[in-house]
Structures are given as structure tokens and as C-alpha cells.
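Page 37, continued from 36.
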């Protein structure tokens, strides 16, 4: 139960207490001279005990020596104080106290040492025994009780140990079950993303065709449902990562105003059919540029705003940002207030628990998994803050959270921002050609369709081997998009073959990983493997746009 150091400290503490009680007893019962004698003897024994514990490194020898010293000291004091019979009782107490260490060995050694000391008394100090305990018979009864008590203690230790082992097994089982649950969630999210790529991609392509208004309406329905489904999958994945402690905070420099403008613009679109105003205010003292995990900050705000929009039919939604310096850090306080349906006081705790929705029967039409606020809560904790809610049922709610950020260096953010508008401009390519490698035909069709909208010529193939073959005598591609998970030769193996070539083109052509894996650190993994960048599936057109801007030769960009 305890480690060695703690065990020894406890043994010595017991030793000192034992001595102190005895010396106190001698001072109380006898004259000062006897008391001082007892005190000197006790100090001498205690010193030896401490020295032994410090010098000898073998736990069992230290415990046994301490037990022996304790018994000798007790018995010696017993002789002085004429309380020899007390020593058997002391031995039982010492042995009993050793049970908390849960080591049967210590109890047995302590018993053997105690018994040996008792037998030495038995044979060499008979007259003291008789004068202090009445008779040799009573002393023998003490020793018998001592033996039975020690045996009992051994049984207790064995039983408790078994129990502990069973408990440990159960804890391990629960941990394994939790891990498999997390693995399952992560895998299933990955598997769902792959067909989702096809659904989102194909609808994106279909929307670009010359459709009738009714078909466009159907397509936009599929598109918005696809987005909801994708956000649910992302929530499940985030939840799995948070639960398994695999969530990483990636700090960057960002502009607060830029973030709030961006997110409120995005949300305005969702509010277009509602009588709700959306505004934000930033306190004057809040720095313009901060350093922290912008993406996760966005995610919390996005979740709170999505809820506010979901549950508010008319009135307002306001975001307020304030903050204060805390040493080197900056604590940011953000609140999202709405004039929506509100939440009952009894439900305040519940809503932050995963998969919990309240009033679900009444608001069955509001989609969601009940994960959003649970994720927000974990994220704020991870970012050194907290989240809470105030609400009046039927009037509105206010969600407030705080996170620790640092101050950013202005220049870096400004330059990053100035790049953004360009990145969002749709790129058109003239004379550009790319190769897409994926074992899934539908995914190939989607990638081909989406990439063609940039004006690119798109060739496709179904596997790593085929890709290597094609590249042997075709050096016309500006970019190779390689799926990661493929049978036979996966994306990484294929890249190794391409890069392992002597040919200058194959060693330098940009190769971008295409993957449904969106776990943290995935970009770093692909870069470390030698990829130039990566694009996640379902393919996001803004992301693809910026990848093409980066890797298509400048003279082909329009
Ligand atoms: P969901 O995916 O259901 O939105 P959340 O964890 O984000 O899951 O929210 C949990 C529950 O909290 C919601 O189902 C809803 O009942 C309640 N809730 C959250 N935000 C609001 C809000 N702004 N107004 C009213 N109720 C809310």
C-alpha cells in the first residue's frame, strides 16, 4: 500500500511515540532519576533506529531491526518501569500496525523477532516476568494471544491483497473499455468522413450544374444536412480526443477583431430567416492581438453562437469581450447573451454533461448531439479557464467563459491577415495538371470534379503502384494528391518510392496527402513523412484553394 520510504518513516514515528508514552509513564509513576534514565535509554534506541534506517538500504532488514529495537527498548523500559507484561501487548500493536503496509513478509519477520525477544525474556528474566505479570502461565497466555493475533493479521493482509488485486483488475478493465470506446469513436468518425467526402463533394459539384430551382433547393438541403452531419462527426472526434487526453493546444498569434468579424459574418447567414440581431463589443483595454489556440477559441465561440441561434427566434444575440492582465498571461472573458428560450435552473449542471440535452421533447426539431457544451467545458479547462451559464427560463441565457492567452507580436498577425483575403479569392489555373491517387472510385470522381472547377486537368489512378508506374514516364503534373489509406501500397509507401528515385522531378514534385484522418498533429506527421502538405476529406474548397495557390507554379495562376 505504501512505498518503502513512507513505511520506514511510519515505523520510526511509531517507535518514537512508543518511547514517549513509556518515558512519560516512568516520569509519572517513578522519581525523576528513573525518568531521566528511561529518557536517555529511549533517545539512545531512537538514534540507533534512525541511523539504521538511513544507512541500510534493504527494507526488510530495516523493518526487522526497528521492530527488534522497539521491542528491546520497550522491554528494557518495562524492566525499569516494572511493566514487563506490557511488552507482549506492544509487540501485538507493532505487528498490527505493520498490516497497513500490506506486506505479509513484514508481519512474519516482526512476529519472529518479537517471539525471539519474548523467549529470551522467558528463559533469562523469569523473576521479572513473575513479578510483573503474575506468573509464567499468564506470560505464556500473552504469547499465545500474540501468535493468534499475528496469524489473524496475516489472513487479513492476504484477503485485502486479493481484494486489491481484483479491484486493480476491474480498474484496468474499465480503462481498457474506455480506451476501446475512444478508439471506436475515432475509427467510426474516420469511416464516416470517407463517404461524407463523396456526399459533400458530389453535391458541391451538382450545385455548380445548370439545375432547376427545385433541384437547387434539394441540393442545398443535402448540403446543409451534410454540414450538420460533418459537425456532429467532428464533435464526436473532439470528444473522443478530449476524453482520452489526446487534445493538444496549438497557440498562434491572432487578431481578436478579425476572429470576431469572421465568426459573426458566418453566423449572420444562419440568422437570415430570423428576426435576431447579432453584435459584438470588445472592451477598450483588450489588446488587439493575442497569442493562443485561435482554432479552439473559435470552436467554443462557434458552439455557443450556434446554440444561441438555435434557441433564439427573435430579439438579440450579443458577444462581449473583456479581459485583464495576469502576470505574463492575459485572461480573456467572453460572454454570449441571447433572448432565446432560456434554461431552467435545475438544468444548469446537466447541459455541460456529454450527450445531455434538456427540454428535448419540447425542442425535438433542434438538431444536436448534446456534446457541444461538454466540449466547450473541457476546452476552457484545457485553456486555463472555465465556463458557466446564467439564464432565466423563457427570457434568455448568458454563457460566459474565460481563457488564458498571451499578448501577441503585432507584426506577425497583421501580415497573416493581409494574406487571407487573397487566399479566399477563387483561384483559376491555366495549363495546370494534377494527379489524384485514391483507391475509392467515388472519391476520385469527387476530387476530379472539384479540382476541375479550378481549371485544372485532372488525371486519376486507383493505387500506389499504378501511380509509380504513371510517374515513370509522365513528368507533367504540377501536384500529386495521394490518399493515405490504400491497400497494398499506402500513401506513405508510395511517397517513399517516388522520393527515393534518382530523377530530379520525382524528388521535387509537390505531393499532398489526402486523408480522412483529422486528429491533432496530423499535418506534422505527414510533413515528417515527406509530404509537402495535406488536405482533409471531405475536401474543403477554401482549403484546397490555398493549397493550390501555394503549390501551382505562379505563372499558371490567374
Ligand atoms: P446540442 O448539440 O444539443 O446543442 P449542447 O451541449 O450544445 O448540445 O447543449 C446542451 C443543451 O443545452 C441543449 O440541448 C439545450 O437544451 C441547452 N442549451 C444550450 N445553449 C442554449 C441556449 N443558448 N438557450 C437555451 N438552451 C440552450
Amino acid at each position: 500500500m505504501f512505498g518503502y520510504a513512507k513505511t520506514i518513516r511510519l515505523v520510526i514515528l511509531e517507535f518514537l511515540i512508543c518511547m514517549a508514552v513509556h518515558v512519560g509513564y516512568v516520569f509519572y509513576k517513578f522519581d525523576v532519576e528513573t525518568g531521566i534514565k528511561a529518557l536517555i535509554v529511549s533517545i539512545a534506541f531512537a538514534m540507533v533506529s534512525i541511523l539504521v534506517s538511513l544507512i541500510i538500504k534493504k527494507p526488510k532488514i530495516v523493518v526487522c531491526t526497528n521492530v527488534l529495537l522497539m521491542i528491546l527498548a520497550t522491554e528494557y523500559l518495562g524492566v525499569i518501569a516494572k511493566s514487563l507484561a506490557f511488552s507482549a501487548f506492544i509487540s501485538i500493536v507493532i505487528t498490527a500496525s505493520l498490516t497497513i503496509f500490506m506486506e505479509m513478509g513484514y508481519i512474519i519477520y516482526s512476529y519472529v523477532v518479537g517471539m525471539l525477544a519474548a523467549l529470551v525474556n522467558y528463559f533469562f528474566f523469569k523473576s521479572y516476568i513473575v513479578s510483573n505479570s503474575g506468573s509464567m502461565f499468564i506470560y505464556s497466555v500473552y504469547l499465545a494471544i500474540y501468535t493468534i493475533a499475528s496469524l489473524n493479521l496475516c489472513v487479513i493482509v492476504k484477503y485485502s491483497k486479493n481484494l486489491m488485486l481484483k479491484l486493480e483488475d476491474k480498474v484496468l478493465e474499465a480503462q481498457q473499455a474506455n480506451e476501446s470506446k475512444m478508439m471506436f469513436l475515432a475509427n467510426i468518425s474516420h469511416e464516416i468522413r470517407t463517404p461524407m467526402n463523396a456526399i459533400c463533394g458530389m453535391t458541391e459539384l451538382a450545385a455548380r450544374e445548370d439545375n432547376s430551382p427545385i433541384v437547387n433547393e434539394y441540393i442545398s438541403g443535402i448540403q446543409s444536412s451534410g454540414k450538420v452531419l460533418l459537425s456532429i462527426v467532428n464533435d464526436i472526434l473532439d470528444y473522443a480526443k478530449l476524453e482520452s487526453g489526446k487534445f493538444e493546444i496549438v497557440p498562434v498569434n491572432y487578431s481578436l477583431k478579425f476572429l470576431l468579424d469572421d465568426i459573426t459574418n458566418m453566423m449572420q447567414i444562419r440568422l437570415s430567416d430570423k428576426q435576431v440581431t447579432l453584435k459584438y463589443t470588445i472592451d477598450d483595454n483588450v489588446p488587439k492581438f493575442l497569442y493562443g489556440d485561435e482554432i479552439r477559441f473559435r470552436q467554443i465561440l462557434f458552439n455557443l453562437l450556434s446554440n444561441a441561434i438555435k434557441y433564439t427566434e427573435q430579439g438579440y444575440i450579443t458577444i462581449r469581450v473583456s479581459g485583464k492582465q495576469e502576470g505574463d498571461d492575459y485572461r480573456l472573458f467572453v460572454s454570449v447573451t441571447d433572448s432565446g428560450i432560456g434554461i431552467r435552473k435545475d438544468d444548469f449542471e446537466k447541459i455541460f454533461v456529454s450527450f445531455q440535452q434538456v427540454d428535448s421533447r419540447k425542442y425535438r426539431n433542434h438538431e444536436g448531439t448534446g456534446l457541444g457544451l461538454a466540449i466547450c467545458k473541457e476546452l476552457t479547462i484545457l485553456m486555463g479557464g472555465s465556463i458557466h451559464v446564467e439564464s432565466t427560463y423563457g427570457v434568455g441565457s448568458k454563457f460566459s467563459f474565460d481563457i488564458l492567452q498571451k499578448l501577441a507580436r503585432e507584426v506577425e498577425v497583421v501580415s497573416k491577415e493581409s494574406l487571407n483575403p487573397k487566399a479566399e479569392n477563387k483561384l483559376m489555373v491555366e495549363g495546370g495538371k494534377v494527379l489524384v491517387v485514391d483507391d475509392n472510385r467515388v472519391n476520385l470522381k469527387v476530387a476530379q470534379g472539384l479540382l476541375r472547377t479550378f481549371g485544372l486537368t485532372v488525371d486519376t489512378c486507383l493505387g500506389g503502384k499504378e501511380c509509380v508506374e504513371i510517374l515513370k514516364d509522365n513528368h507533367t503534373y504540377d501536384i500529386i494528391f495521394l490518399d493515405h489509406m490504400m491497400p497494398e501500397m499506402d500513401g506513405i509507401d508510395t511517397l517513399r518510392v517516388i522520393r527515393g528515385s534518382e530523377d530530379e522531378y520525382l524528388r521535387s514534385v509537390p505531393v499532398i496527402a489526402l486523408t480522412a484522418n483529422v486528429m491533432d498533429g496530423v499535418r506534422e506527421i505527414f510533413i515528417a513523412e515527406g509530404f509537402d502538405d495535406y488536405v482533409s476529406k471531405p475536401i474543403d474548397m477554401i482549403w484546397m484553394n490555398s493549397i493550390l495557390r501555394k503549390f501551382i507554379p505562379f505563372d499558371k495562376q490567374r
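The first strand starts at residue 252 and ends at 255. Flag for discussion at group meeting. Residues 303, 307-308, 311, 338, 340-341, 343, 351, 357-359, 368-374, 397 surround adenosine-5'-diphosphate (CB under 6 Å).
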